Amino acid sequence: RKRHLHVRRSEAILEGRHLHLSRRRKPEATGRRRRPHTCSARCRRQGKTLRHERERVALLLRTYRYTLTDEESLQDGAAQVLADHGVIVEREYRLGPHDRIDFYVPATKLGIEVKSHGSPTAVLEQLFRYAQHDAVGALVLVTRRRALIPKARELAGKPLTSVYVALGGAF
């Protein structure tokens, strides 16, 4: 039962809909089914739009397999996946004079950084610099090396989601 709900939730996120589970009533008691919905005024009022977009982008990027030769090919594959699913991004977005993030979703202030090499400390320092900018509301790190995934889930008060992508496949 839990697995089925997880699969339904994943499909809903991919389609841009979300399951809001009510804690007050169980669906069996009311006879009504919980239905996914698109983010609306309710989500915006509760500040959930950024979280939903971050979850959706992370799930989209995690779902695909990439053929990689370098960081640029991983960026190209990620850009293709995001474009195919209607996520409007700006590539190489300049946050400041010395900071340029790989992808930026202006509608939700979501920053996406792609890393395939480097030290974990250097990656964490770079992400922390990005998190200090007001233009960034949340960060997603996409990497093909598990060693680069930081343990921190929040940097400078901004949520951080890490996505490990697998090798091989279509992109």
Uncertain runs:
1-7, 18-37
Query: Element order, helices and strands?
Result: HEHEHHEHEEEHEEEE
Give the % helix. Answer: 25-40%
End-to-end distance:
33 Å
Can you count the helices? Answer: 6
Q: Characterize the largest beta sheet: strand count, sense, and whether it forms a barrel.
A: 6 strands, mixed
Lateral strand order in the biggest sheet: 4-5-6-7-9-8
Content of β-strand: 15-25%
**Mean of the pLDDT scores?**
76
- Molecular shape: globular
Count the beta strands: 10
**What structural class results from the helix and strand content?**
alpha/beta
Specify Rg, calculated over alpha carbons.
Answer: 17 Å
Describe this structure in words.
This protein is of the alpha/beta class and 171 residues long. It has six helices and ten strands, in the order αβαβααβαβββαββββ. A six-stranded mixed sheet has the order 4-5-6-7-9-8. A hairpin with a 2-residue loop joins strand 8 and strand 9 (158-164). The radius of gyration is 17 Å and the shape is globular. The chain starts with a helix and ends with a strand. Mean pLDDT is 76; it is low at 1-7 and 18-37.
